[in-house]
Amino acid sequence: MKGTVKVDESLCKGCALCIPVCPKGLLRVANERFNARGVHPAELDDPAELCTGCEMCAIACPEAAITVFRAVKA
Ligand code: SF4
Ligand code: SF4
């Protein structure tokens, strides 16, 4: 794993701007649930751990709801 992201769902407004910018297509709208704002939040869907930590999604998010974590080389 090179990176991962955490979506703060309480901040997410469900705009989906983060989804097309991910080069790996790893973000999705959680259609099966709503957050406290009453929208479907974005979530990471990365079972194969393909996230590179490139930060494209975090940069695109107008709510600063996405935090990127990158693995540190030992
Ligand atoms: S950090 Fe990059 S690879 Fe990882 S979910 Fe965001 S846009 Fe996709
Ligand atoms: S860009 Fe931000 S606010 Fe919009 S869906 Fe993605 S995480 Fe939520």
What can you tell me about this protein's structure?
With 74 residues, the protein is an alpha+beta fold. It has one domain (3-70): Alpha-Beta Plaits. The chain has 2 helices and 4 strands. It has helices spanning 18-21, 56-60, and strands spanning 3-7, 27-29, 42-44, 66-70. The strands form 2 sheets. A two-stranded antiparallel ribbon has the order 1-4. Strands 2-3 form a two-stranded antiparallel sheet. It is globular and about 40 Å long. The two termini are 13 Å apart. The structure holds iron/sulfur cluster (2 copies).
In brief, what are we looking at here?
The protein is of the alpha+beta class.
SSE topology string:
EHEEHE
Total beta-strand segments: 4
CATH topology annotation: Alpha-Beta Plaits
Could you name the ranges where pLDDT drops below 50 across 5 or more consecutive residues?
Answer: none
Major sheet description: 2 strands, antiparallel
Q: What molecules are bound to this protein?
A: iron/sulfur cluster
Count of folded domains: 1
Any idea of the CATH class? Alpha Beta
Oligomer: single chain
Helix content: 10-25%
Q: Strands across the major sheet, in which order?
A: 1-4
Question: On the 0-100 scale, what is the average pLDDT?
Answer: 97
Query: Would you identify the CATH architecture?
Result: 2-Layer Sandwich
Number of helices: 2
Strand content: 15-25%
Structural class: alpha+beta
Distance between the termini: 13 Å
| Tertiary shape | globular
Please state the CA-atom Rg, rounded to the nearest Å: 12 Å
Task: Summarize the SSE layout with pairings.
Blueprint: E1 3-7, H1 18-21, E2 27-29, E3 42-44, H2 56-60, E4 66-70
One iron/sulfur cluster binds next to loops.
